[in-house]
Design a protein that fits this description.
It is globular and about 40 Å long. The chain has seven helices and no strands. With about 170 residues, the chain is mainly α.
């Protein structure tokens, strides 16, 4: 399924501006990705997260498959402060996945690059909020350190391809 922007908007907060009539451009998405990569805790990160999320929903240049296999840290029954962190990690995932697809110029889901972006963002967040601990992301870190995260992503992609109807690209 294509990215579910409703979930992202709910998690990113109801204070976000109403979506503009014109779609997010590739240039705007790339700039927003850079903001998230540089400092996911910075003052421009929330707006960048919104931009990345909208681009993922609107653009035919990318395909992001969302589910518990790709984003296991996204939960609804966590304290508000932690929910915001998890939402920003979701935006980081989108940013990593989208960046990989834009670089390849091919709309093919890339959960591995999304997970790497989540790990980097999580480490940035933990520097400012050391009490935050998200077990699902800690698991991703352990798998990357063990050298098996890429293999898991490849297996997930194979499974996704099996589940897609022949007429879907």
């Amino acid at each position: 399924m294509k990215l579910r922007v409703l979930l992202a908007c709910l998690l990113l907060g109801s204070t976000l501006a109403v979506a503009r009539a014109e779609p997010v451009t590739r240039r705007e998405a790339v700039a927003a990705i850079k903001v998230l990569e540089t400092d996911i805790t910075g003052p421009d990160a929330l707006k960048a997260a919104e931009t990345v999320t909208r681009f993922g929903k609107e653009s035919d240049a990318v395909l992001i498959i969302v589910g518990p296999e790709t984003m296991p840290w996204v939960q609804t029954d966590v304290p508000e402060g932690e929910a915001k962190v998890r939402a920003m990690l979701m935006a980081a995932y989108f940013a990593g996945d989208i960046k990989a697809q834009l670089e390849k110029r091919r709309a093919e889901d890339d959960p591995y690059r999304g997970w790497l972006a989540v790990i980097k963002a999580y480490q940035q967040i933990r520097k400012k909020q050391p009490r935050i601990r998200i077990d699902e992301v800690e698991e991703l870190i352990a798998k990357e350190e063990a050298g098996v995260l890429k293999q898991e992503a490849d297996e997930l992609l194979k499974e996704q391809q099996k589940q897609q109807p022949d007429n879907m690209v």
